[in-house]
Specification:
Its main location: membrane. Belongs to the major facilitator superfamily. Proton-dependent oligopeptide transporter (POT/PTR) (TC 2.A.17) family. It is found in: Membrane. It holds the Pfam family PTR2. It contains 19 helices and 15 strands. By secondary structure, the protein is an alpha+beta fold. It has 2 domains: 485 residues, Growth Hormone, Chain: A (Up-down Bundle), CATH 1.20.1250.20; 72 residues, no CATH class. The strands form 5 sheets. It has a 7-stranded antiparallel β-sheet with strand order 8-7-6-5-4-3-9, with no helix packed on it. α3 packs parallel to α6 and α13 runs parallel beside α18. The longest helix is centred in the last third of the chain and has 36 residues. The radius of gyration is 24 Å and the shape is globular. It starts with a helix and ends in a 5-residue tail after the last helix.
């Protein structure tokens, strides 16, 4: 909700852009460039960790899930600091600069790791022929163990054993399951810089992400029916940037190296900063700092934020070395066995949401409390959605690299990270259609309520995985699925996303008590953080063993992905049906908000 002073500034009858307040155009562009950087880098991250640093699926998925979780956890703090001290505009500008620095540092990956395999108590180097250090491996790239001067190709078996194949095609060695141990010699300083860079991006995004959405909400007065449509347009800017980044960054990385693809994310963040810095004419009066007595609070907030970067780095190193939970430990044992980040997220989620409810019960009216309660219930279901949806950057990207025929009508081969752009293309194409559909249904009184839309999103994201599983039944002899099936999953997921994400951001601004709207936007991103961390855990379920970064048995890889995708798809559809049953009582808590 807007405050009375904000409402007086709302350009309800001033110059418009696409029928909306003109400042929306600038915010659209700023968010577009920020999302270019985020999604462009995200498209490369999992492959960067598994191919360049050779960290393995499990460790890489843990880092990926931890990073994306931090990206959505830090807005809880960034939103609060902006509400109370900095103001939204200063927070956005500071966040943009920190993120740019992180992206530039991320590009300093150095030389690729050198793989080795150990068996019989001896460490043997792995020679990679026709090596290409980029997102798309060379078509004829092979890995061979150098055993007493002989190159032996590596072939995994379904029981987990390994055959080492001599140049004449015979089996030179058969290694029982667990006998071969693989690893890599890597530049530990460069890996540390990479983890620090990810930490900087996460901290910067905490200041940027919740506060630019808050400024969008301030453009509309209470009761302005354009608000939902405005957020949908803003969401199209997110996905336009996503598409551009997921298209451009893999191309740059393939042709000019990882540094070019990752560094381009930093360049566009500087563009976003400049657009916000020189926005006084269009955004004057919106997101300004609150009146605070004494010294400028930025003098302590900015240094504290920079000091938070090494703290996040510690969380990443802890993630890398966290053991798998012990079988049969039970739920409590599972929680105790989580890395520090997992404990932090569970504690923050479990404490913050009830604390917000207690505060709203004491500080607000009964209706305001019930509206806040409805928002928080939907946040919980939101975590489930994002746990599945965010497989795009982790397990689905590895699946695309390993088990998808990425040929586009025989004209060219799409790189694995570039397949993520199917989602952005789907959003850009379908967002106007979905917006028009909601408008038509609203005029007839048939528009689904927000809880029903959320349940449709959950059912849809689960159905997308089952659609891809169906496609695996038509895999070729090379155990690769046609690209169209993966594109179909992303199309279904795009429809599901449009049922939740833009609706959710708008819902928060409408259901929140006015003076904590920034905090509630941060809590919304906290639910996303839980989903992102859950996505990392799910991706670890789909771990496929590799040697020197190469899958040794594509059939076993395909079977692993099919089993995980089937399970999570079915469970999520069930969760969506539960929410559908609960939608009516939740709607009553919303007191007419739609």
């Amino acid at each position: 909700m807007t405050t009375p002073s904000d409402a007086a500034q709302t350009p309800a009858t001033g110059p418009t852009w696409m029928g909306h307040p003109r400042p929306l155009a600038r915010l659209f562009a700023i968010e577009m460039w920020e999302r270019f950087g985020y999604y462009g880098m995200r498209a490369l991250l999992m492959l960067y960790l598994t191919k360049h640093f050779l960290l393995g699926d499990r460790v890489s998925a843990g880092i990926y899930g931890g990073y994306t979780a931090l990206v959505y956890l830090t807005p809880l703090i960034g939103g609060l600091l902006a509400d109370q001290y900095l103001g939204s505009k200063r927070a956005v500008k500071f966040g943009a600069l920190i993120m740019a620095a992180g992206y530039f540092a991320l590009a300093l990956g150095g030389s690729p790791a050198r793989p080795w395999a150990e068996y019989d108590g001896v460490r043997h180097p792995i020679e990679v022929a026709h090596f290409r250090d980029g997102p798309t491996s060379a078509a004829n790239e092979t890995r061979a163990v150098i055993d007493h001067g002989r190159p032996l190709l590596i072939k995994g078996q379904e029981d987990g054993s390994i055959d080492l194949i001599a140049p004449d095609g015979s089996v030179a060695r058969h290694l029982a399951p667990g006998v071969l141990h693989e690893g890599a010699d890597r530049d530990e300083l460069r890996l540390a810089i990479t983890l620090m860079a990810l930490s900087a991006v996460a901290v910067g995004n905490g200041f940027f992400k919740p506060n630019i959405a808050t400024i969008v909400g301030l453009l509309y007065a209470d009761g302005d029916q354009r608000r939902d449509a405005g957020f949908s347009i803003f969401y199209m800017g997110i996905n336009l940037g996503s598409w551009l980044g997921q298209m451009a960054c893999p191309i740059l990385a393939d042709h000019f190296g990882w540094g070019a693809g990752l560094g381009s994310a930093g360049a566009v963040m500087l563009i976003a900063w400049a657009m916000m810095h020189y926005s006084q004419r269009s955004l004057g009066g919106f997101g300004e700092p609150p009146a605070v007595a004494g010294r400028d609070p930025a003098l302590w907030i900015y240094p504290a934020a920079i000091l938070a970067i090494p703290a996040c780095y510690f969380l990443f190193t802890n993630l890398m070395h966290a053991p798998a939970p012990a079988p049969g430990a039970g739920f409590v044992g599972y929680l105790m066995g989580l890395p520090v980040m997992g404990k932090l997220l569970c504690a923050t989620f479990g404490i913050s949401l009830p604390a917000i409810l207690i505060w709203s019960w004491r500080a607000g009216s009964r209706a305001e409390f019930e509206m806040m309660l409805a928002a928080i219930i939907l946040m919980v279901f939101n975590t489930v959605f994002w746990s599945l949806f965010e497989q795009a950057g982790s397990s689905l990207t590895l699946f695309a690299d390993r088990n998808v025929d990425r040929s586009v009508f025989g004209w060219f081969e799409m790189s694995a990270p570039a397949t993520q752009q199917f989602n952005a293309i789907g959003i850009i194409t379908l967002a106007p259609v979905m917006g028009a559909l909601w408008s038509v249904l609203a005029r007839r009184g048939w528009e689904p309520s927000i809880p029903v839309k959320f349940s449709m999103g959950l059912i849809g994201v689960g159905a997308g995985f089952l659609f891809l599983v169906l496609g695996t039944h038509f895999a070729g002899a090379d155990y690769r699925v046609g690209l169209g099936w993966l594109a179909g999953l992303y199309l279904i997921h795009s429809v599901a996303e449009l049922c939740i994400s833009p609706v959710g951001m708008s819902m928060i601004t409408k259901l929140s008590i006015a003076r904590v709207v920034g905090l509630m936007m941060g809590a919304w991103y906290l639910s996303l953080a839980m989903g992102q961390y859950g996505a990392g855990l799910l991706a670890q379920m789909a771990t496929v063993e590799t040697v020197g970064g190469q899958v040794t048995n594509l059939k076993l890889s395909l079977d692993t992905y099919v089993g995980v995708f089937t399970q999570i798809g079915m469970v999520t559809i069930g969760v969506g049906l539960v929410l559908l049953v609960l939608s009516a009582p939740i709607r009553r808590l919303m007191h007419g908000v739609s």
